[in-house]
Amino acid sequence: MPQNTTQSQKGFSLRDFVRQYGNEAQCADALDRWRWPQGFVCPACGHAAEPVRLRTRELLQCRHCHHQTSVTARTIFVATKLPLTTWFLAMFFLTQQKNGISALELMRHLGA
User: Fold this and answer.
1) Strands, E, within the chain: which ranges?
2) For residues 99 and 112, what is the distance between their CA atoms, to the nearest angstrom?
3) Full 3-state SS string of 13-24
4) 22 to each of 42, 49, 58, 70, 97, how far by Cα in Å?
5) Are 59 and 69 in contact (CB under 8 A)?
6) I need a labelling partner for 101 at 20 to 30 A (CA). Which of 50, 73, 86, 87 fits?
């Protein structure tokens, strides 16, 4: 009988998770890479070039049309008040538990 590849995947430890997604900058960089794998593309004009990264706010500005966007715009994180680290940690707990996790247990893990 062949082995189920989904069930036999190596787990992702909490230590590895914290090393990879331990702060806001790491989470934002991950969203940036996932959202624009071939590099930034302006959602307004479609211009593909490195954006201007504003210093005053966490925004990316298109060099062509000056449209401003963020890594969380048009994602499930668009209007969140929670830090990205909290969301990433919640996703980690949801996906790493073999039998799932209750909302109450997730709340306890996240310290909410």
Assistant:
1) 52-53, 60-61, 68-69
2) 22
3) CHHHHHHHHCCH
4) 28, 28, 18, 20, 19
5) yes
6) 73
The token pair that represents 28 in the structure block? 């934002």
CA 76/CA 82 separation, integer angstroms = 12
Closest CA to 47 of 63, 31, 35: 63
pLDDT, tens digit (0-9, with 9 covering 90-100), for 40-85 = 999 999 999 999 999 898 899 999 999 999 999 999 999 999 999 9
User: Two tokens at 40?
Assistant: 């930034």
Tokens 């980690």 label which residue?
92
Of the candidates 49, 83, 90, the residue with the CA atom closest to the CA atom of residue 66: 49
3-state secondary structure of 78: coil
